[in-house]
Amino acid sequence: MTELDIRLLRAILRSLDSLRASLDRRAEAIGEQSKPEHGGSEPEPPVIVHAARELPIEAREYYGSKSRPTQRRKVWRWVRNCLEIGAVVTAIVLAILTYRTLQEVKMQADAARQQVSIMREQLEATDRPWIKIISSDPLSGTIFIPDTETDKISAISQILIRVKNIGHSVASDVSIHANMFLEGDSAQQARQVCDSEPRPPHWRQPQTVFPDDTAEFGAYGAVEVPESIRREKSVRPYFAGCINYKIASVNTIHRTGFVLRISERFAGEPTGRWRTPLKITENYEPARLLVRGDGAAVDVN
């Protein structure tokens, strides 16, 4: 409480004391007038007194000045409103800038992750193992077995496939699974074999092949000769399959599709440049056969 407030309270108390004394004097005067005179005359009517309680002038002026808005208060109120509006606008601008900054940081992070992924793929491509078929030969010949009861013919063949790791790291769980076909799109057949679940190997279990080392696998096939081929009495069988192997360091599975065609070795052409179809009325010993790829191999992953 300030000194000015104390002075105002003291003035109010003095005013109340003087008002109380005035009321007491008036009450005594009214009491004396209400007493009957000894002359027996009628008493005078009572005097009605109206007391109005008012604060002192100093108090009224003080509180009036407090309630009336001054020029300084008007200015301060205007300044405060401007500051509040400015704070709101600043907060909105900062929120927009923060959002844009986060978007930019996210884009940069995505670009960095993509760059790291590309670098990892390049490093993996240079350091990973690569399994390649280096040769293929008939293993047990190709025979055609007719069924006299049903008039059907089955073609059976088995080949030997040699692969080599031409990469720079170890290839583990190397295996080959292949099917024999007599017709159809060879490249598409190779992709379908790679996309299917690998079957148990016909010959030898999965192997680990070190860089520059080789491994051998066998592929066996037995299919029924379609009616259209029986009418032509000749066929060009082929094996469409997939080489499966893993990178030993990261345990990533890779698959490479291949197509190997079987044809009769043409006399005078030991390299087998001429691919003669096989007659379904004959059986062929391994020495009469040639197994070569036709360029339809596909690297699946």
How would you characterize this protein structure?
This protein has a domain at 131-299. It is rod-shaped and about 165 Å long. It is built from 5 helices and 12 strands. Strands 3, 4, 7, 8, 9, 11 and 12 form a 7-stranded antiparallel sheet that branches. A 3-stranded antiparallel sheet has the order 1-2-5, with no helix packed on it. It has a two-stranded antiparallel sheet with strand order 6-10. Residues 295-300 have low confidence and may be disordered. By secondary structure, it is an alpha+beta fold. A hairpin with a 4-residue loop joins strand 7 and strand 8.
Quick tags:
about 40% helix; about 300 residues; single chain; 5 helices; about 30% strand; seven-stranded antiparallel beta sheet; rod-shaped
Anisotropy-based shape: rod-shaped
Residue-averaged pLDDT: 79
Major sheet description: 7 strands, antiparallel
Count of discrete alpha- or pi-helical segments spanning 4 or more residues: 5
Task: Give me the Rg, rounded.
Answer: 56 Å
The secondary-structure class comes to alpha+beta
**Total strands:** 12
Binned, the helix content reads 25-40%
Give the DSSP E fraction (strand runs of 2 or more residues): 25-35%
The rounded distance between the terminal residues' Cα atoms is 88 Å
**Low-confidence segments:** 295-300
Q: Secondary-structure element sequence?
A: HHHEEEHEEHEEEEEEE
At a glance:
With 301 residues, the chain is of the alpha+beta class. The protein has helices at 3-33, 57-67, 71-127, 186-195, 227-232; strands at 131-147, 152-165, 171-181, 207-209, 214-224, 234-235, 238-247, 252-265, 275-276, 278-279, 289-293, 298-299. The chain has a domain at 131-299.
